[in-house]
Task: structure prediction
Amino acid sequence: MGETGSMTFAPRVLDPEPVTSLDAWLAAGGGRALEAARAVGGPAILDTLEASGLRGRGGAGFPTGMKWRSVAANLSPDVPATVVVNGAEGEPGSFKDRAILRANPYRVIEGGLIAAVTIGADRVVIAVKGAAVADGDRVRAAVAELTRAGWGGGITIEVLDGPGEYLFGEETALLEVLEGRPPFPRVTPPWRRGADELGDGPEGAPGAGGRDLAGPGDATPAPPALVNNVETMANVPAIVVEGAEWFRSVGTAESPGTVVCTVTGRTRRHGVAEVPMGTPLREVIDTVGGGPLTGRVVAVLSGVANPFLPADRLDTPLSYEDMVAAGSGLGAAGFIVFDQSSDLVAATTGVSRFLAVESCGQCTPCKQDGLTIAEHLDRISRSDATADDLAIVVDRLATVTDGARCFLATQHQLVVQSALDLFTDAVDRHVDGTAEPAPAELVAEIVDLVDDRAVIDVGHADKQPDWSDAAADSGQSPADQGE
Ligand SMILES: Cc1cc2nc3c(=O)[nH]c(=O)nc-3n(C[C@H](O)[C@H](O)[C@H](O)COP(=O)(O)O)c2cc1C
Ligand code: SF4
Result:
């Protein structure tokens, strides 16, 4: 049964006991969904998925059935499509995808194979970070077992080891990596033109920026790619076997099902747990995190993709619609908790630095305004600032998203603007020098979860804006290098 106090429910995607072999997965009912999908065919699966109301768990909550249908409607006449399972999980505060893959990689891969059968793809790629060696090896072993057992049935299953950059998780950047290029986001919707871009110049040619958008019905030889988050794919097998109504029996009308949450930051313990959508955030922080370390919770961040959620909105139910109505967003449900001992200006500076460093620089304002915001926030955080520093931050927040090709620049704007709006007193005390100086708090990816404690990538503090770990930054943005 699940961990929340208000209701008991059977976990659906995060297996309570690790499933360590294909035999164990078969004994638990694994394989039935794939068999059913092959028997009923793509159109029936699309109908079931749409009726279930499943929304993508990678952050944006995009309806999964609609996405699969778009891909299926835009297939290339010449080359089959690719299904990509996004296990990059670079979002600070999130560990749920690795928890799901560790607990049961077979469930996720079965979801990917059902996607491939449904849309007519001939390849499933599971994308993980290369640095997560043990996790990658576990997935590779499961892929080998499934392949030996003939689950592919003409569909190949591969594991892609990606770079450590945050942008690797952005789906168009992930498709660039799949084609052997750096993780620089594309302009093009990935389900129109995807992996194995055809007729696109020599290897190593410039990224996909500026490529034309292929509309529905356009004759293009380029095959589309379907990209879904690990947790999204993990939901698919049970939906196929149990049906849409069963899926909707838990959760809210607009956000059916469960959500796998990560709780880290200033809580007694850190952890990952699956709860019904609609569970209040406070309950998750108390049951999964054991409550705040000192005093009370003062604010929560859902990764670095949404505005801060202040303490007076802690009873917000966890759903896409409720979190937006509360002024924030559900994101990947990776909650970084701040308590009374936290300096929220230092935390904001940490987020700003992370996003400015991780920006690829294809869009100049995202990189340059982003770095300027981080630099002046750093002075404010150290109580070594004037009103001019704050004015510069406000000024650059207005332009950082200009011409932005991906959502990273907007994330920067949303998080920092929310801090300025919500924590005015704390910001003012840092600007006038009455607050204790506080260095930027480290905000970076979780690399492991050991003994109820998240291990944060401390090396990120030395990562330069040019993505090197050199002693000094070269001043060249990642996208400009090599030109
Ligand atoms: C900067 C950035 C980083 C992202 N990182 C991830 C990630 O690590 N994992 C993920 O699943 N989605 C990530 N996303 C979202 C993906 O672009 C994409 O929306 C998602 O993989 C789609 O799957 P879904 O529909 O199942 O949610 C990121 C988006 C942005 C803008
Ligand atoms: S918005 Fe930022 S991170 Fe996204 S493509 Fe542009 S420069 Fe790169």
